[in-house]
């Protein structure tokens, strides 16, 4: 198999893995780690665009420093988000083209920097402060926007310090690597968008079932609050069963999907009462 064929096969395998991943933290971690591997990068970050047009760090890695935040590490992000817009001297909201990450998000274009310390194109003050504190040297950068199906930038993928395989020396990101990482970024954007849609549907369903439960509770003064309490009690009892290490529940556990199904079932356990006459509900 040629190197080109191997690269295409790898992209296909990554695409399948991304589409199958349902955990947001693991999904974003997989995106960054696969991009780092493909670009032979020592460091990298994944940013997600917020409704306030900020680019928030969601996962950061620097292998040579053993630095890892976000993702599945459980370590919270300590870095401030990048502002896509700022106020100028007159108070007008203007685009932030001085930062390489915001520039990639604003233009939708990939940016390849050979050496940040020799570049006057962007303000690398924050990067240099990080380097001064850690003793690191951030040189080569590959910054790629993540675009959804509407060509809207939903995030940015940034790789830092491509390493020459034989010597381990920092080198620029090769132009041959760019299209591969861009293809991965495109797959990543689709996966993130799909996950956002699924999460939105879950939130909509959750709102609906809570509304239905509230409607049932409002039908009778004798059972008011019952539908609100059952999910809490159900979760407490189930968690106790999961935590048990002896007896009939020693091997009992629920995965993420099963917990969600239990959550919905608990809220909907009395949904039939929506059509039950009040005098019957009161008698019961």
TrEMBL record:
Domain of life: Bacteria
Domain HD-GYP: 201-284
Pfam families found in the cross-reference section: GAF
Gene3D superfamilies named among the record's database cross-references: 3.30.450.40, Hypothetical protein af1432
Signal peptide range: none
UniProt cross-references to PANTHER family, sorted A to Z: CYCLIC DI-GMP PHOSPHODIESTERASE PA4108, CYCLIC DI-GMP PHOSPHODIESTERASE PA4108-RELATED
Name of the molecule in the record: GAF domain-containing protein
Protein species of origin: SAR86 cluster bacterium
């Amino acid at each position: 198999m040629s190197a080109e064929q191997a690269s295409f096969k790898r992209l296909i395998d990554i695409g399948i893995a991304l589409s199958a991943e349902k955990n947001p933290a693991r999904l974003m971690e997989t995106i960054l780690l696969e991009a780092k591997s493909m670009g032979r990068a020592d460091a990298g970050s994944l940013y997600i665009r917020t409704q306030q047009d900020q680019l928030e760090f969601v996962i950061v890695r620097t292998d040579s420093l053993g630095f890892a935040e976000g993702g599945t590490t459980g370590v919270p992000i300590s870095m401030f988000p990048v502002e896509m817009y700022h106020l100028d001297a007159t108070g007008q909201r203007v685009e932030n083209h001085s930062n390489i990450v915001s520039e990639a998000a604003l233009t939708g274009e990939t940016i390849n920097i050979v050496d940040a310390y020799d570049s006057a194109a962007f303000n690398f003050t924050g990067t240099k402060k990080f380097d001064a504190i850690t003793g690191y040297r951030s040189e080569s950068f590959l910054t790629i926007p993540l675009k959804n199906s509407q060509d809207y930038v939903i995030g940015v993928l940034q790789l830092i310090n491509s390493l020459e395989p034989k010597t381990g020396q920092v080198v620029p990101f090769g132009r041959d690597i760019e299209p591969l990482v861009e293809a991965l970024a495109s797959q990543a954007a689709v996966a993130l968008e799909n996950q956002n849609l699924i999460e939105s549907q879950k939130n909509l369903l959750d709102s609906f079932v809570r509304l239905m439960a509230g409607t049932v509770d409002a039908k009778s003064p004798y059972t008011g609050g019952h539908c609100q309490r059952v999910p809490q009690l159900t979760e407490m009892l189930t968690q106790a069963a999961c935590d048990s290490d002896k007896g009939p529940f020693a091997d009992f556990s629920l995965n993420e999907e099963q917990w969600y199904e239990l959550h919905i079932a608990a809220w909907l356990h009395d949904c039939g009462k929506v059509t039950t006459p009040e005098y019957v509900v009161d008698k019961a």
